[in-house]
Amino acid sequence: MRPPQPFRTSLPGPEAMQVSVEGGTTVTGLLAVVTFFAALTLSVLVTYRFVRGYLRSRSKPILGLAVGMFLLAPAPMFVRIVAGNLPVAGPVRIVAATAVEAAGLLVILAVVYRGRP
Q1: How far is CA 114 from CA 15, 66, 87, in A?
Q2: Is the pLDDT of residue 11 over 80?
Q3: CA dihedral for 8, 5, 29, 47, sign (positive or negative)
Q4: Residue 8 resides in a domain
Q5: What pTM was estimated for this model as a whole?
Q6: Does some domain include residue 46?
Q7: Burial class of residue 26 (count of CB atoms within 10 Å of its CB; 0-12, 13-18, 19+)
Q8: CA–CA separation, 20 vs 36, rounded Å?
Q9: 70: closest CA among 49, 91, 95, 44?
């Protein structure tokens, strides 16, 4: 049995912003997948709570927070999953996920400072 390989990233460059494991153990890979899906589940649940709050109050700011939260957390995760399974270049995948996150932050900031999206 050979020892686990160290983590490798390329600096500087867009790939340095992503976690890259080469030759890691099975436990490490499984732990990464389980953690990813736990974070995805929690972010969808938080977004769902925002949507339920909007449905009860019909308040536009709550709807804006729900949209912003979705764009900030679950949407980039879905983008990473889909883009990871398509022949998309690494930098394009990173820019797409970051753009979705930035859009979510902008929507949330608009709600906070204006009271509506």
Answers
A1: 36, 16, 40
A2: no
A3: negative
A4: no
A5: 0.69
A6: yes
A7: exposed
A8: 14
A9: 44
